[in-house]
Amino acid sequence: MQKIRIAILGASGYTGADLIRLALAHPAIEIAALAAERKAGQSAQAVWPHFQAAQLPDMATVDTIDWPTIDAVFGCLPHGASQQIIARIFDRPAPPKVIDLSADFRLRDPETYAAWYGAPHAALTLQAEAVYGLTEHFAEDIAQARLVACPGCYPTAALLALLPLVQAIDPQRIVINALSGVTGAGRSLKETNLFTEVAEAVHPYGIGSHRHMPEMEQALGDAAGAVLRVSFTPHLIPMNRGELVTTSVDLANGATVADLRALLATRYADAPFVHLLPEGVAPATRMVRGSNHCVLNVFPDRIPGRALVIAAIDNLVKGSSGQAIQNFNLMFGLPEAMGLEQAPLFP
Amino acid sequence: MQKIRIAILGASGYTGADLIRLALAHPAIEIAALAAERKAGQSAQAVWPHFQAAQLPDMATVDTIDWPTIDAVFGCLPHGASQQIIARIFDRPAPPKVIDLSADFRLRDPETYAAWYGAPHAALTLQAEAVYGLTEHFAEDIAQARLVACPGCYPTAALLALLPLVQAIDPQRIVINALSGVTGAGRSLKETNLFTEVAEAVHPYGIGSHRHMPEMEQALGDAAGAVLRVSFTPHLIPMNRGELVTTSVDLANGATVADLRALLATRYADAPFVHLLPEGVAPATRMVRGSNHCVLNVFPDRIPGRALVIAAIDNLVKGSSGQAIQNFNLMFGLPEAMGLEQAPLFP
Amino acid sequence: MQKIRIAILGASGYTGADLIRLALAHPAIEIAALAAERKAGQSAQAVWPHFQAAQLPDMATVDTIDWPTIDAVFGCLPHGASQQIIARIFDRPAPPKVIDLSADFRLRDPETYAAWYGAPHAALTLQAEAVYGLTEHFAEDIAQARLVACPGCYPTAALLALLPLVQAIDPQRIVINALSGVTGAGRSLKETNLFTEVAEAVHPYGIGSHRHMPEMEQALGDAAGAVLRVSFTPHLIPMNRGELVTTSVDLANGATVADLRALLATRYADAPFVHLLPEGVAPATRMVRGSNHCVLNVFPDRIPGRALVIAAIDNLVKGSSGQAIQNFNLMFGLPEAMGLEQAPLFP
Amino acid sequence: MQKIRIAILGASGYTGADLIRLALAHPAIEIAALAAERKAGQSAQAVWPHFQAAQLPDMATVDTIDWPTIDAVFGCLPHGASQQIIARIFDRPAPPKVIDLSADFRLRDPETYAAWYGAPHAALTLQAEAVYGLTEHFAEDIAQARLVACPGCYPTAALLALLPLVQAIDPQRIVINALSGVTGAGRSLKETNLFTEVAEAVHPYGIGSHRHMPEMEQALGDAAGAVLRVSFTPHLIPMNRGELVTTSVDLANGATVADLRALLATRYADAPFVHLLPEGVAPATRMVRGSNHCVLNVFPDRIPGRALVIAAIDNLVKGSSGQAIQNFNLMFGLPEAMGLEQAPLFP
């Protein structure tokens, strides 16, 4: 088989590293280029010593990539930078397909983007064209797309849990509590990411103002046919990988908890990576660590008329690089699960 | 000063250990007896090697304690066993005062107790007499009591956050998400408490059926003058100590978020251990580790008309042994903060 | 390709779980049976929820396995039990090949076995026949064997580091300090394995009396042509997976640190899983987590005439289940690295 | 009692924070000034939210401190900066006593200092005057000193274990393996200190070139009456606090392991903070967390004629701020243990 040649932009971050890991295991992928501006010229092993055994190209700059030979691009760049570089890529003749993992193309509305990211979008046409890459829900559009915007990690977990239920709950009263491992904060040098500050501790952050809010509101609002707001409180907990969302919802339209279960069971019956657990079994991040799987479940709340919907993913895989590969598979007509079959790592 | 001679029952559990730690630092306490049935005869250092430098009595059985010499008892026994042993203590002439850290005397209603704990209460008169030991809210009764039932760790954090707000929120629609370190599960040998199962992982537990629910409902219901139910979902996270509750509430009776802040500020203005943080500062367990302090704060929710109230404690101190000492101080007419002045340990 | 049908005995322990994980990714393996006496009848997912997405047989007892259909057995049983069950397997007509991960067949000398394990060996003929499964050093014998005894985790790391150097160092003065994650202690319910006891802490154990000592002494003694003893001190550190050995050696026979480097470079030039790091780069467990790789390096000691040889592995993979698969590959004439190509998981 | 007024220089690092914590509990100390150049003007709570309940001065610059009112200075500044600022302090009339926690005054020999720290010492007279602050061994000199150089964390643990044994072992063949929590690396923003890099991992560092080497060699060489070198390999492990040294020594001069035990027992019989554990009990960092205690023990090695001496401390307390307070107590004629009586925090 002729392999598909990929470039990973932003290859020195954790998302980039996990893309490399998954791409190495993918039978149809050849890693043709790794770009990391500030590490350009270094070997991949100098940046990521855990790839000691792999054959990988050296880190390069975006501009030195041999673009005509690239079939697909995975963008792991910071927002803002991402839209500019991807716009230049699409200006080339016969551009590669692009799977963007940044936030730049997730929000459809330019004003919402500008309000949350503090600057107007610099690639409005592409923003309008981009397909939101929540694979299980937008597979047909993704398969046709040349630019896919992969969801944020929290929206991935929350939307997998809630999107199938929108008609059976009150969409205006969704409360989402979320817990994330520290890789969600990336590799940036901030005091709050030091081991000494994070270990043996927990705290909420981004209260009332997290950028994943408008993303969830866009998708849930589309499904509900309404403008809505979600209550969302993420917490940082002392682990590397993993994300768990515990959502509290009001049942609506006569729906029961059993109805919610049935909706999820039906919706994900054929999904290779989303698993409704047996009744009563609580989702746990250790069920999915290192894998592209999502486990979820529904429980009656103690307050009558309410339910809890809980989902767990690995934020770096289903919440980021794994879902990116899953979208890549669809975009290139490959089996959806190709290269993503690894079982979770536990303990 | 003549010291007050205490006995700690259940001295081989983590709560017992933290009581020993705090009692060693208390200028008015003499540790006269440590009871731990299965470790009786062992030195305290054999059970707790971290007390290498302390002078402590050997572990004993409850029956071998020289009861007439004991002024106060701290009960750290499992529920069920606790009520029986404490009943026998009160059958003695001139019994000591008792601070019970078990669940046995927290619920006022015998039927509620029986329903949640699976057996009728064996000491109904004492159950009726016991005072609920949330120090900041029931100090006067505690000061007069001879039997105080210390609150559970989750109720302590949740009630400190919510009790002053009951008239300003809808008490029927309180959603409490909680995160706890593993000491909350005690020292029992369960697979789910192994390092390998807990580390690098998070999961909810006790969904819809946690025994701290009726305790919170009793106290909130009393304050609201209504029968109510709370939505409560605890999660186990990979740290030793610490507990954080993130509650989502509906504003009511025209109250604003600023009103909630003002209510908390007023209520805890003179409380030595409960601290309303500056506006916008998120509570974090690292602010209280190892100490009897509670930090809390209020935030506007993104959904209009709702607010987030967040509190953090050390589950073994303010959530257990520290609050027990605080109650002891009141019961013996000592300054409320005596022996509890240690600053948090960070990192 | 006709798949090789395997049975995993002791499938409810961590070693069993990692064998399942690796076997699921192995293109030539079919998992035909999982035995776990106390969990017999349960689904694999009930025992290991992280295999939610896999097709696996239910847990069974050893006796109910359809033995004539089994081609290979992986034994993850406790020592003692292992030798008895494996002896019965070899009593069958046309027995399967056996890869044993227990300690039962590692020590060649029956008296040494009896002295360290407290009872005489119950399968002396098999003990004599078994091949020691340190793949990189005994590949030819392993390829011919019908019973392979996989090394302990500490011996794997220490012997990979030291065996090639025996002629260049004083084999009577080897000091091995080792650090291990908690999975090395298995899934057993001991107080010392609780999260609360292990987290935020470190301690040495098995001082002067660890059962991996005679195993290292046997292999190093064979290579040195001498009876010898090693100084070995393992420490338990708060992580799940990973093992690091820091050995201090006296140079001998005129050898230099550069000679040690050259010996390792030559010895492992073609080894797919053992990697001599660039000069000056310290081995770290994060370089190998979840993979079958070993990274090692040599450093001059500050005391003249001495050197440090340091190696890191994942104790559950190269130190256990991964090496077992590697041996299986040789025993069945498959490529040595088949099914083990997964890159490490970092972070 | 008239309190002693102290200034803490470098109050925004972890060592500074732990000094504040301990000073708050010290009955004879008044915290008069906190200096942190880059945080000057901020409240102590803004820098250290865990001191929410404490009365503390705002962060200031060194130059704005009201020096004539200061009785004692604790220096927690980086090496290099420390010597310059302390020299200026001693240029003042009636200077305060200084307890320096930096490396600047630990090495007596100017050439050794220059070789290891890359620049000549800028305060040679003070360097010659400074007393090495290993309290248990140099108490008399410390009591007379106006400048004490507190030992590094590793030297503290290693020297407490080894100094009493120097005549009974071969001082030229000491192998020290050490494990440290991440607070040992301070609060600096380095990639290697991120949670994601440290958690679930271990690695050695500073191999062959750690600055604590010459410090240990100076003290051991003094005691042995010889020039010597030590083998020392520190490892970073995923915990906040704690340090464990496992030393391997050759017995000499006819000494036995029992002799080593006796030497330690005699030497520390009256030491309030150094505890020889019962025979066979392994030191563990959980025995000392948050406290000024050191636990140690001796074991026979498996190689005849050798022994293992193992010690554990909390690197931030006995290895840093606690020992500084202990020295302060001696310098001001206070009881050695004043303010340091807190029992360890476990779990």
**At CATH's second level, what is the architecture of the largest domain in chain A?**
2-Layer Sandwich
Gross geometry of chain A: globular
Q: What would you give as the CATH superfamily of the largest domain in chain A?
A: Dihydrodipicolinate Reductase, domain 2
- Strand arrangement in the largest pleated sheet of chain A: 3-2-1-4-5-7-6
Oligomer: homotetramer
Describe the protein.
Four copies of one chain form a homotetramer. With 347 residues, chain A is α/β, with parallel strands linked by helices. Chain A has two domains: 4-129, Rossmann fold (3-Layer(aba) Sandwich); 154-315, Dihydrodipicolinate Reductase, domain 2 (2-Layer Sandwich), CATH 3.30.360. Helices cover 30% and strands 20% of the residues of chain A. In chain A, strands 3-2-1-4-5-7-6 form a seven-stranded parallel sheet. In chain A, helix 1 (14-24) crosses helix 11 and helix 6 (135-144) packs parallel to helix 11. The longest helix of chain A has 15 residues, at 317-331.
